[in-house]
């Protein structure tokens, strides 16, 4: 079924879409006493399946002793997302997320601690709380003890995210202070100090912070900006793995301080066979075992805390950790430091949990909007003069704003702006009246300084890093608006590690469009466009006459995350670019969590043989944040001109990362006739595409090939032909039977999809409204195999519909969706035939 752009989605498909995107139920409780906290935690086990349960803890000290010592979630059977958040004022109307304000005191009681058992796809976030004087709650029968334990039930799920953020752990003891095991484990911006580890079971691991990466999951750990100091009896940070190199996720251990942990500061376990993708850099520590991948960026000197003996682990003014962190973090910098203060102050983030107020950059203040266009003798107080001074500086340089008058202030360039060749931060958030964006799907920031090129031929860009700039050149731009530039408002041809966050490109009244908002090209290294875990980092990219974000640098490696692309500032009305995001001969870029809609051509384009290793994941393509359709004028995602080995949705061995693609005027994902091979299209959900949800080669369905693989996009991978589909309501599974004919003696990934109806774009073909789950089928010596496959079906509220499938070969070539087959129901109530697959 296809949907005209003007009519929206039908009620049934909107139900499917919302079921796919949102939790069924959400409950929030506000607690202000130890008894209320205990009751709230106990109620976690009673929450409905698929819900989100938020416990807001009012500021104060809670003498809980051992009363919280329980494995919460062990009794309940549902998938419930948990948020345990400290720092609230009375009534929970406002919040100051400094963990020093919300203290859980274990009173040195024996077996004190807290644990959570998370089921299915559920996630957990613990933030803004101090845990002190806990003795570790025993986890019988395993004889382990932890202060805080977050664990997955059974083998867990690839979709689970367990995060401990901005918390303090002081004067605690146990086998582990914090222990986490699961798929996505995040320990960010925390302090662990003065811990005593005791071995309670022979051969069981221990550490102040301990994670275990399970080979059964697509697992990864993110440990960034933590301070772990003064651990006795075991290592400060212990990361164990059973992964043998098949994880599709990249782990990151960056910007931590680990010091004065006498056993080891960092311990990695696992023999030479146990490896996994990992980046580790910019850490400060004294000792690590041989398995830890040390980096030349690491530091090994005393971090110089303000008062270590008394627990003040802020950085002293002579600390080597100040302004010495990584230029970028894979998951984005923390939005604030442990005490709730600003991140980042100075040219680079500080190591550890606290950010110093020391700014190592020289500063210029822009005080006027006038511009004489003279690079040799610019108007004093102008942006041009500030950039000239920045280029002449020997070190990092920050440009701030203090222009008189009310917002907004408009700078109209009189001539091409001076190139940026130094390490320069242009911070529009410093202009009086600026306010940050507060929404991931819209842009409600109050910007106070705009730069206008007026569409003049002599103003191709507002800011430009030339290809001749040194490798140390770096441009950071925050909180500015741009309009009227006929190349790109920001063009990055040289330098590396640029950051463009919290800006508006286009959608500015009474100004002409930009050709592109941001272009990363030439010999420039990766750029970070947008950000993670911080609404203020969202960029608005609207109305570009060419591609909104254009990546054509051979080095690739840019991140485009959490931007609003093709919308007006409200996130609802269209502000179309010609294309949303265009990667041309650019590799290893990450495009995640963006809203990309209303663009005149495609939402995302991957083009050119150099475009490989790109990851398009978790995006909402063709829909506004309120669920209304905002389809792109052609394909949701287009792959062309030999672009190859890209990931659109889940990695080959995983079920996470899927995009939601809605209301495309063409195919949902189109691997065009010129497209390359190895492009996996997995675990995405599609609604209302005018064409096929997944289309290979020419527009419209491609027949299965007599011999496979064949010459063509994605090797014209054959699709599986289904013969039967039965929903087993008792077991909660879908059982399908069919046949696959392809390469001999090859194991294929088989993905099943649910839809309410078959495709109207191709008679008898399927739609992928709801991805179910993957399994595997292996062909025989003749290349053909009949199969019966069972996958979980957890969408019990959906009516009986139709099932279709894709297969993906070991090289990543995904087929089109095959034929659709009506579901039957094994429930004996319907055995008399009064209800068929179409209700």
Please give the alpha-carbon distance between the first and last residues. Answer: 17 Å
Compute the number of strand runs. 66
> Structural class given helices, strands, pairing?
mainly beta
Strand order of the largest sheet: 29-30-32-35-38-41-44-47-50-53-56
The helical percent reads under 10%
Number of helices: 3
| Number of spatially distinct domains | 3
Over all CA atoms, what is the radius of gyration?
A: 27 Å
- Report the principal-axis shape: globular
Strand percent estimate: 25-35%
Summarize the SSE layout with pairings.
Layout: H1 11-21, E1 26-31, H2 34-43, E2 52-58, E3 60-63, E4 71-72, E5 81-88, E6 102-105, E7 114-118, E8 124-127, E9 130-132, E10 137-138, E11 145-152, E12 161-165, E13 168-170, E14 173-174, E15 176-182, E16 184-188, E17 191-197, E18 207-213, E19 220-224, E20 227-232, E21 237-241, E22 251-254, E23 257-259, E24 266-268, E25 278-281, E26 284-285, E27 305-307, E28 312-315, E29 362-366, H3 383-392, E30 397-401, E31 409-412, E32 423-427, E33 449-452, E34 463-465, E35 474-478, E36 481-483, E37 490-492, E38 498-501, E39 504-505, E40 518-520, E41 527-530, E42 540-541, E43 547-551, E44 559-561, E45 564-565, E46 579-584, E47 590-592, E48 595-596, E49 604-607, E50 615-617, E51 620-621, E52 637-640, E53 647-649, E54 660-662, E55 669-671, E56 680-682, E57 685-687, E58 694-696, E59 721-728, E60 733-741, E61 747-755, E62 770-778, E63 784-792, E64 802-808, E65 821-822, E66 824-825
Parallel strand pairs: 1-2, 2-5, 3-6, 4-7, 5-8, 6-9, 7-11, 8-12, 9-13, 11-15, 12-16, 13-17, 14-17, 15-18, 16-19, 17-20, 18-21, 19-22, 20-23, 21-24, 22-25, 23-26, 29-30, 30-32, 31-33, 32-35, 33-36, 34-37, 35-38, 36-39, 37-40, 38-41, 39-42, 40-43, 41-44, 42-45, 43-46, 44-47, 45-48, 46-49, ...
Antiparallel strand pairs: 10-11, 27-28, 59-60, 60-63, 61-62, 61-64, 64-65
Keywords: Signal
Organism: Dokdonella fugitiva
InterPro entries: Choice_anch_Q_dom (IPR059226), Pectin_lyas_fold (IPR012334), Pectin_lyase_fold/virulence (IPR011050)
């Amino acid at each position: 079924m296809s949907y005209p752009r003007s009519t929206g989605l039908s009620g049934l498909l909107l139900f499917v879409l919302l079921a796919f995107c949102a939790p069924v139920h959400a409950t929030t409780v506000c607690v202000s006493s130890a008894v209320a906290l205990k009751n709230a935690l106990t109620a976690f086990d009673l929450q409905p399946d698929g819900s989100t349960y938020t416990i807001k803890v009012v500021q104060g000290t809670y003498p809980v002793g051992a009363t919280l010592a329980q494995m919460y979630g062990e009794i309940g059977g549902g998938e419930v997302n948990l948020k345990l958040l400290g720092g609230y004022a009375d009534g929970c109307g406002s919040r100051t997320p400094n963990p020093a304000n919300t203290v859980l005191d274990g009173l040195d009681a024996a077996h004190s601690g807290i644990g959570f058992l998370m089921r299915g796809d559920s996630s957990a976030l613990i933030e803004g709380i101090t845990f002190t004087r806990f003795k570790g709650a025993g986890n019988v029968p395993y004889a382990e003890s932890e202060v805080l334990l977050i664990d997955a039930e059974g083998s867990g799920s690839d979709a689970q995210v367990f995060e401990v953020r901005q918390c303090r752990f002081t004067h605690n003891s146990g086998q582990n202070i914090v222990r986490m095991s699961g798929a996505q484990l995040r320990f960010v911006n925390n302090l662990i100090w003065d811990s005593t580890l005791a071995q309670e079971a022979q051969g069981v691991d221990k550490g102040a912070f301990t994670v275990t990466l399970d080979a059964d999951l697509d697992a990864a750990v993110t440990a960034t900006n933590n301070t772990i100091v003064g651990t006795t009896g075991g290592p400060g940070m212990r990361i164990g793995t059973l992964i043998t190199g098949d994880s599709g996720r990249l782990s990151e251990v960056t910007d931590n301080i680990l010091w004065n942990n006498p056993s080891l500061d960092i311990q990695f376990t696992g023999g030479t066979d146990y490896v996994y993708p990992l980046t580790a850099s910019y850490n400060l520590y004294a000792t690590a075992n041989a398995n830890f991948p040390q980096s030349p960026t690491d530091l090994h000197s005393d971090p110089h805390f303000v008062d270590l003996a008394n627990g003040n682990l802020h950085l002293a003014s002579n600390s080597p950790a100040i302004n010495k962190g990584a230029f970028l973090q894979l998951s984005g910098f923390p939005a604030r430091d442990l005490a709730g203060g600003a991140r980042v102050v100075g040219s680079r983030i500080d190591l550890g949990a606290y950010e110093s107020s020391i700014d190592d950059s020289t500063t210029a203040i822009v005080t006027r909007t006038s511009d004489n266009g003279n690079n040799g003798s610019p108007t004093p107080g102008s942006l041009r003069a500030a950039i000239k001074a920045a280029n002449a500086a020997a070190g990092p340089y920050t440009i701030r704003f203090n222009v008189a008058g009310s917002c907004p202030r408009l700078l109209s360039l009189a001539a091409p702006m001076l190139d940026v060749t130094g390490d320069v931060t242009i911070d529009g958030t410093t202009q009086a009246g600026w306010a940050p964006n507060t929404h991931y799907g819209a842009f409600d920031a109050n910007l106070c300084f705009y730069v206008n090129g007026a569409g003049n031929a002599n103003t191709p860009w507002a800011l430009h890093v030339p290809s001749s700039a040194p490798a140390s050149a770096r441009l950071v731009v925050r909180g500015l608006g741009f309009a009227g530039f006929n190349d790109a408002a920001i063009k990055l041809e040289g330098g590396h590690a640029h950051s463009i966050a919290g800006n508006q490109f286009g959608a500015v009244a009474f100004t002409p469009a930009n050709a592109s908002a941001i272009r990363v090209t030439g010999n420039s290294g990766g750029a970070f466009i947008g950000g993670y875990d911080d609404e203020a980092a969202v960029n608005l990219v609207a109305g570009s006459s060419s591609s909104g974000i254009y990546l054509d640098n051979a080095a690739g490696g840019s991140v485009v995350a959490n931007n609003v692309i093709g919308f007006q500032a409200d996130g609802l009305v269209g502000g179309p670019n010609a294309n949303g995001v265009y990667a041309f001969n650019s590799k290893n870029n990450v495009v995640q969590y963006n809203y990309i809609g209303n663009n005149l051509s495609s939402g995302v384009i991957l083009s050119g043989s150099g475009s490989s290793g790109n990851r398009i994941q978790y995006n909402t393509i063709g829909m506004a944040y309120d669920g209304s359709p905002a389809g792109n004028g052609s394909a949701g995602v287009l792959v062309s001109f030999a672009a190859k080995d890209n990931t659109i949705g889940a990695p080959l061995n995983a079920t996470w990362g899927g995009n939601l693609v809605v209301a495309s005027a063409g195919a949902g994902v189109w691997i065009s006739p010129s497209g390359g091979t190895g492009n996996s299209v997995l675990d995405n959900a599609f609604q209302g595409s005018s064409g096929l949800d997944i289309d290979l080669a020419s527009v419209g369905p491609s027949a299965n090939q007599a011999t496979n693989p064949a010459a063509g996009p994605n090797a014209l991978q054959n699709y599986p032909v289904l013969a039967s589909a039965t929903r087993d309501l008792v077991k909660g599974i879908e059982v399908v039977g069919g046949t696959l004919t392809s390469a001999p003696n090859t194991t294929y990934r088989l993905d099943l999809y649910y839809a309410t109806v078959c495709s109207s774009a191709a008679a008898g073909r399927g739609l992928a409204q709801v991805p179910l789950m993957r399994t595997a089928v292996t062909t025989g010596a003749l290349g053909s195999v009949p199969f019966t496959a069972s996958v979980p079906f957890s969408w019990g509220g959906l009516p009986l519909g139709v099932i279709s499938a894709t297969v993906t070969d070991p090289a990543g070539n995904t087929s089109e969706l095959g034929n659709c087959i009506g579901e039957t129901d094994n429930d004996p109530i319907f055995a008399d035939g009064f209800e068929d697959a179409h209700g």
